[in-house]
Design brief:
The complex is a heterodimer of chains A (113) and B (117).
Chain A: E1 2-7, E2 10-14, E3 19-27, E4 32-38, E5 44-50, E6 56-58, E7 64-68, E8 73-78, E9 87-94, E10 102-103, E11 107-112
Parallel strand pairs in A: 2-11
Antiparallel strand pairs in A: 1-3, 3-8, 4-5, 4-9, 6-7, 7-8, 9-10, 9-11
Chain B: E1 4-7, E2 10-13, E3 19-25, E4 32-38, E5 44-51, E6 57-58, E7 67-73, E8 76-81, E9 90-97, E10 106-108, E11 112-116
Parallel strand pairs in B: 2-11
Antiparallel strand pairs in B: 1-3, 3-8, 4-5, 4-9, 5-6, 7-8, 9-10, 9-11
Classes of the chains: A mainly beta (113), B mainly beta (117).
Chain lengths: 113, 117
């Protein structure tokens, strides 16, 4: 069984400030981890994913995430927030590539000018 | 990049009728597709896994006779909500798993808003 917990349903940051979204997972098998972004009334866009190998993963739009097995975490960061980063972000886990995803509750990011 | 398309993007139907939502993989073959449901301001909940040429696998608590899934080809899966009721109103999203060059990446459709009146 797998589960994902995203700490903080809402995060507010100032434009230019660091964005940090927290994600902790549990998995009985080596996890595949994902971050997706969802803009209002739209589907999901993949930001980045961790499968194997390097634990620091770089994604699109300046985002990156680090897989920490000892902490069962996969936090998402971006050094400098942009107004266009305002959206809902979902962390997800699966047990294998191409398999079904289990999503966290989501974190809504608000970017203040 | 790989694209998954859903149709319709929005649909309104009367209570008691059935409505079909299509999910197509446009430039790759998807042996597996997934259907999710999302209520406003909530996360995505997996409804079922759709495998080409075989019966769908439904998650616990999802009524298979109400949410009919057909995956007749490698590029098309359909979700039919039968005898729809207002509580079925939701955002439905499909995803498709590709193999080969994309390394089994999962791609999501744009979603379909269903409103039952």
């Amino acid at each position: 069984a797998q589960s994902v917990t995203q700490l903080g349903s809402h995060v507010s940051v100032s434009e230019g400030a660091l964005v940090l979204l927290r994600c902790n997972y549990s998995s009985s098998v080596p996890p595949y981890l994902f971050w997706y972004v969802q803009y209002p009334n739209q589907g999901l866009q993949l930001l980045l994913k961790y499968t194997t190998g390097a634990t620091l993963v770089k994604g699109i739009n300046g985002f990156e995430a680090e897989f920490k097995k000892s902490e069962t975490s996969f936090h998402l960061t971006k050094p400098s927030a942009h107004m266009s980063d305002a959206a809902e972000y979902f962390c997800a886990v699966s047990g294998a590539a191409g398999n079904k995803l289990t999503f966290g509750g989501g974190t809504r990011v608000l970017v203040k000018p | 990049g790989a694209v998954v398309s859903q149709h319709p993007s929005r649909v309104i139907c009367k209570s008691g009728t059935s409505v079909k939502i299509e999910c197509r993989s446009l430039d790759f073959q998807a042996t597996t597709m997934f259907w999710y449901r999302q209520f406003p301001k909530q996360s995505l909940m997996l409804m079922a896994t759709s495998n080409e040429g075989s019966k769908a696998t439904y998650e616990q608590g999802v009524e298979k006779d109400k949410f009919l899934i057909n995956h007749a080809s490698l590029t098309l899966s359909t979700l039919t909500v039968t005898s729809a009721h207002p509580e079925d109103s939701s955002f439905y999203i499909c995803s498709a798993s590709s193999g080969g060059y994309s390394g089994n990446t999962i791609y999501f459709g744009e979603g379909s808003w269903l409103t039952v009146v």
